[in-house]
Predict the structure.
Amino acid sequence: MNEGINNARNVSQVFVNVEKGNETGVNFYKAKGFKKLSDFEDDLEGHITSMIRLVKDQLNDREI
């Protein structure tokens, strides 16, 4: 079963976190319709990392 997030049922939003400075990753998700939501710091096993949270609103992107 290889359904993409566009085919997921009962999902209104999808969130992803990308390390700040990873422009390739950010641009990839933006090309898929994600929008920047916030910046935050995450503790990854004792290493503080600056992150970007992106969101895609599934309800407004679905084709009927």
About this structure: The chain has a mean pLDDT of 85.
